[in-house]
Amino acid sequence: MRAFASEPAVERASPLGAAVAGRERMGFDRGRPPAPTSSAHRFAAVAVAQARGGAGNPEAAAVPAEPAAPAVAPSPAAPEAAAVPATPPPAQAESPEREGAVTASPGLSWTFVKTHTWDALWWFCGEHPSGFSTRIMLRAENFADPTALRWSIPRGSDKIAFAGAPSGPEVHVTSKKGSDRLDDITVRVTEGSIAGAPSHDGPLTVRKPHRLIHRFTRHHANCPAFDATCPAGVGAHWTEVGYRIVDNVGGTIVGATVNENFPGHKANDQANDWADPAAFVSVPVWPNTDGTFIDYWWVWGGHPAPVNPGAAHDGDSVDHMTHEFYVGGRTAATGCRVQTHTAHRFLGHTEHENIVTPAP
Length: 360
Known about the structure:
By secondary structure, the chain is mainly β. Helix content is 0%, strand content 36%.
């Protein structure tokens, strides 16, 4: 039998964290389908009598992001939350010229020097993923004496800090935590030290992974196409749970990596030999997503033998375990935790229950 929890990466993500809906992926077996002798969100090469399966992101899966209708009617898909449009606007800075554009005086000002068009300042809870700026440059403009320029943070010093001396025409800023709302940080540049010296206050926002929006749950009968080791005719079922990744100011995060974590062992609701998270073979990472991903779970063989969704004992509880999602890191439990829930395996399907998101 095999038990997995995650989906194959299928679509291509937009470049450099641009906030545009795109690919769907994610799952519990991080990456490639399990070898016939291992088991993670996939149960390894054990006799068919022994449970196998997995959860996560079976990398070699041939299953399309939006698979054909399953043999057994899937559970009704939960409507996608209206908070984030199907094709959302960029999640980073509202426009390339937005930050630093509020002028307190007609002359002196500063601008955020962007690495790419939709760049922004990000916080990934200690991680520094490629394509996202966790350190940025601010550049003063319309000044007379570069040696007289001084910088300060009148509001939001708990969220950002200067990297290096806060003086001169250019300074670097690093993130310390995410913003509570848009433009809740103020950076000031002043030319001179006398009372009434010219100054400019500009707004800044630190974006961070914040929560997941549930998009759908779909249950399927028999073996998943991405697990070639699952023999035809054996008792099996598989489930897809789709999510959208949202930042702290409501934008969809494109280009970020998602990982999963199991902080403990499973709890059995009946005697069984279904795999424990420690033995899952699935790949626990969804790299460079397009803003969405799918977590895959599957089970085949073993005792009790899994059944198809909708079968007489479909709803019989087998086991359950705590499951978490993080955004920003490529190893388990790195980056910002965005959701916790209970992964509950039944005889004929798997569910994410007791969802808490955001989950600081």
